[in-house]
Description:
Low-confidence stretches: 3-17
Radius of gyration: 23 Å
Strand order of the largest sheet: 4-3-5-6-7-8-9-14-13
Bound molecules: zinc ion
Amino acid sequence: MDTKKNKDKCGLNHCLVKDFSAGKYADLQFANPDKIKKIQTQLFLQHLEYTLGQSSFYKDLYTRKKIDLARIQSIDDIGLLPLTHKEDLLNTNDLLCTDKKEIVDICLTSATSSATPTLIPQTSSDLSRLAYNEELAFSMTGINETDTILVCAALDRCFMAGMAYFLGGTKLSATMVRAGSGSPAQHWELIKLTKATVIVGVPSLMYKIGQYGRQNHGDPKDCGVKRLIAIGEPTKDETLRLLPIARELETMWKAKIYSTYASSEMATTFCECEARSGGHTRPELIIVEILGDDDQPVKPGEKGEIVVTPLGITGMPLIRFKTGDISYMIQEKCPCKRTSPRLAPVLGRKNQMLKYKGTTIFPNAVLAALEGDKRFYNGYIEAKKNSDGTDRIILYTALAQEDEPDTWIREVLQAKLRVVPEIRLITRQEADKKVYQFDKKRKRMTFFDLRKKDFLRMNRR
Ligand SMILES: [Zn+2]
């Protein structure tokens, strides 16, 4: 990286993507790969220069690892740079790249995947970037200024998602309904009152809202909702086929469901276009790599860990952040003619990957096989270690009709997963108590990993 040359080329010192207007990069998503690479390289080098100029964490890391920045000439050289781990984010001060007075908002990551939430300070430029990103994501699904968007994601408690949707929707000039994390009854009433045409929320919540409507002399089909933007929970399997819950939601609401993938750390959304064939990445906002267990790039189309370098962030920029999520990049061209790379559905968390009877399986996939089936009510997975070191998977499940037979569970899992874990039936009350123990209104807790505990116990003997 030649700092001086880079500065001359863009004409600005530390110029990042500060002009977050849809027009500036509008054509880039349809551009040929060479042009995308050229623009990304430009933005990446600026990002690197800015981050290394300000962040004591990266300055120390690169000095310690003896990184020769002269070798970084384009995005193809990104692999020469060290990776950033989730634990590295715990010391926000070392990562912060601006004065305290530039910070206008503080986000916290949800603490479901780690004990300590991460603090993410944002500048006003970061909020503009967030709005730009969500505006693009919404408009890619066909949402426009005539839509009324019900956001069933928390706008408070320092969560990023709800705020990002609100900012993006207002930037698009759609009408925003800040429903937040209310009850299904409140959401249902708001949908009717505001004539919402789009719902943004967790699939299981969208299902509960519809169910509430049906139980209260209404029919979700008649509400006029055209699009469901699914967040936080999977809606597709690895071949991009809709999961039963997603199919049920489409029928229930007579609407189209779109998958999204995002996290607070990357502050960027991957959203499907109208072809619904994987989440498009925006080249001006993020560089995505898929790495194998050895932290080297996998072959095109192979599965691995998603590693991201979000571009244009000024508060707490990151370089090569390991998300811990597993997916793959889709190779086929998208019918929408965008040339920007597409990410397949997230198959699960790397640390949740289970080895079972010779197959790799994610807890998500087990529950997804049952969700949407009317006979299934709720459930969760427990992973343990057998004394021989192999994984043991126990599915705790509650049935919609507790006195009905349960043999179908085994049949469905066998057909969809080809392996059947241990199955234990529990009551609906027991299932709800476990699944919603931490947060009644946000994400369900459906995976309890006791493998480490078992390993420690076995080795203490
Ligand atoms: Zn597309």
